[in-house]
Amino acid sequence: MKNSIFASAKKGIVSAVKALLSNKVVLMFLILCLFGICTTGKPLSYTVSEVFTRFGRNTFLVLALIIPVLAGLGLNFGIVVGAMAAQISIFWVVYWGFTGIGGLLLCFLISTPIAILLGYLVGRLYNKTKGSEMITGMVLGYFADGLYQFLFLFVIGGVIPLGNSSLLISGGVGVKNTIDLAGNLKYSLDNLSMLLLVRTAAVVYLAASAIAMIVRLMKSKSPDVKKTAIKMAACAAVFGLTFIPAVSGFMGTDRLLLLNAVELASLAAVVYAAGKFVITKLIQKQDVNAKRLAAIAIVAVIAYALTYIQAIYELLTAVLLPVATYALIILLCVFNRWILSTRLGQNMRTVGQSRTVANSSGIDVNKTRIIAMCISTVLAAWGQIIYLQNLGTFSTYGAHTMVGQYAIAALLVGGASVQSANNKHAILGVVLFHTLFVVAPLSAGNLFGSALIGEYFRVFVCYGVIALSLAMHAWKTVIKPKVESTRVESKPPAEADTVETAKQ
User: Fold this and answer.
1) How many structural domains are present in the chain?
2) Do 231 and 332 fall into the same domain?
3) 246 and 174 in one domain?
4) If both were cysteines, with which of 72, 175, 201, 391 could 352 make a disulfide (CB 3.0 to 4.6 Å apart)?
């Protein structure tokens, strides 16, 4: 008995060590972040609050990078064109005087067709430069920036006259370097209340479910009425609960304490586990992974119990989350997982793994790559809109320049690579990368008397992690195969056959 326990423990330790060693970049950044947190001279609540603010501001952009990686396009340095599409839409919305959530929705509406067009053109270009998409994307970003500056420095005000001179340079030609979004788009998404979000989501879901059921009936298909009815009833119940004074009072705010978020997430996890078990096992009479559901419920209960520890309680009550922004991040995570289950998502993965296999399977490789680029560019445009409305200012000529580098660096810090990326990599990367960005200047100021050292260090880290990733990719895809083939050719025939057999 003791031997078996010892063997299991040893196996677990070995597996943990291997997992750590296989994620060297994540481990290195974790150590740097912990060291920085300990040397900032600031309370932990300050760092946590700043990180969550940056998380809501930047995560959508990082998540926009995942689909191109899955499609074999590598790290999408071309998302800068999506950011430009967003900034073009923001400028015109501000010029026309639209404000609040209406103005924000108009930004999404205007930027989407522009981003689709730009994504299509970028995808066509990438299809002509297969294997060199990343360097092509970097050069394309500089080229697009030139056209962007031509538009904002000469066309607007010079070719296209504007009646609002407050947005123009003193000479009347060209847009100002900085546009203040206060009073029009600033916090237009962050300030949406939970009550409005929940009611809108419930109405949209009920309407979509009803329409989907009607369409299936018109096509002579039998929908799963029982399952759909249960989901619609649950949604209607949630909608009804929002009219209870205590519930509506709680949900009337646009910011949610991190403590309340943990409590709601724990409750949702328990309800999900119980509901999944009841619907699948008891109603549908199907097998269900009871151990997995039980694990989810236990983890949720433990997370809720930890909130009663005083230190954790104080930390969780020091952070406020913009509900609408985080809801969009969650929806994008769901979308990234959902698209992999579709035929398009499967085609993207096949193309990413091998274009030769994809062609032999009848998949239109070029079309699939273009669609992946269009989706990524649109998501990047939306992410830039979310970023700028939270920031509150619009740097006309500089807001988009570092979008690609920072987003890609964050993704790589989370353990992603040129050939593999998922939601977990993006979320972990944003947390670690922006934690370092927050603590580096403070830590350098305490240790060396100059915050600029921290600024230089974090910029070095940003470009360093990108360079390291590209170097590793070049080694795996170009240099390593050549070295291995040279070794095989240099060996005697019998030994070379043995080496080749072993590789297979």
Assistant:
1) 2
2) no
3) no
4) 72
Nearest CA to 465 out of 416, 409, 393 is that of 409
CB neighbour list of residue 408: distance below 8 Å, 6 or more residues apart: 65, 75, 76, 77, 466
**139 and 33 together in one domain:** yes
159-163, 214-218, 355-359: which is most confident: 355-359
Task: Encode pLDDT of 418-461 as tens digits.
Answer: 888 899 999 998 998 889 888 888 888 888 888 788 777 777 77
Two structure tokens written together for 287? 């097998």
**Do 376 and 457 sit in the same domain of this protein?**
yes
Distances 411 to 86, 345, 384, 403, 416 between C-alpha atoms, Å: 21, 20, 16, 12, 6
Where in 283-425 does DSSP place strands (E)? 320-322, 393-395
Helix (H, G, I), strand (E, B) or coil at 256: strand
pLDDT tens digits, residue range 256-281? 888 988 998 898 888 888 888 877 77
Q: Indicate if the alpha-carbon torsion angle 331, 336, 340, 342 is positive or negative.
A: positive
Do residues 374 and 122 touch, judged by C-beta distance below 8 A?
no
Q: Which amino acid is at 58?
A: N
Range of the domain at 203: 193-253
Question: Which amino acid belongs to residue 461?
Answer: V
Q: Is the same domain home to 324 and 467?
A: yes
Query: Residue 85 in contact with residue 336, Cβ under 8 Å?
Result: no
pLDDT by residue (tens digit) across 391-410? 888 888 888 888 888 888 88
Shared domain for 167 and 215, answered yes or no, is no
What is the pTM for the complete model shown?
0.86
Contacts with 284 (C-beta within 8 Å, 6 or more apart), sequence order: 227
Beta-bridge mates of residue 168: 175
Q: How are beta strands 393-395 and 320-322 bridged, if at all?
A: unpaired
Element (H, E) at 455: helix 451-474
If you write DSSP's letter for every residue of 299-337 in order, what string do you get? HHHHHHHHTTSHHHHHHHTT-EEEHHHHHHHHHHHHHHH
Quick one: 167 and 217 in the same domain?
no
In this structure, is residue 147 part of a structural domain? yes
- The residues facing 394 across adjacent strands are 179
Contact indicator for 26, 413 with CB cutoff of 8 Å: yes
Taking only the tens place, the pLDDT of each residue in 6-64 is 555 556 565 655 655 567 778 888 888 888 888 888 888 888 889 999 999 999 999 99
284 found inside a domain: no
Query: For position 111, what pLDDT does the model report?
Result: 94
